[in-house]
Amino acid sequence: MQIKLVLIEDSERYIRELLGLFEQELQLSPDEVLVITSEADFYKEIANWSQEPPAAFVIDVMIPFAFPNEPTDHVPLELQKKALADKFYRAGIRCAYYLLSKPALAAVPMFVHSILTDAELASDKAYEPPRSSNVTICPKEANGHGIVKLLRELPSLRRN
Predict the structure, then answer these.
(1) Domains of the chain (ranges, CATH numbers)
(2) What confidence score (pLDDT) does residue 84 get?
(3) Among 63, 68, 140, 156, whose CB has the most other CB atoms within 10 angstroms?
(4) Sign of the torsion angle spanned by Cα atoms 49, 144, 70, 90
């Protein structure tokens, strides 16, 4: 089954909440949603999306580069060095910029969300979320309904 949505999120509770909402509100089965919990995991999966891009990406700003004991040898060395030098709590932003650098994925809608305020996100220009016509910056809500409302607007996620 084709992946319709990529969810980049590390909170198990929030993942469960969103998967339930995606199934209930968007009629997306769990098999149609790929959950990625770290930046290292993201780089492992990205090659799979170039041929059949998902309908959208939902990206949490604050994900880890990797979890303890998670292999990272598949991540190019220059990206590993950048991740270790950068602020760990902005890994989702690095993922969004990386997606924009890939021609096959650059136009896929991205919803970058965070518990950080707009002012906090903009306070460090080096880690500011990308501004692009297909990137929506939105607050991360406890119940997930805001992100579902935005996803519902995408024609590629509408069921006939």
Answers:
(1) 5-157 (3.40.50.2300)
(2) 65
(3) 63
(4) positive
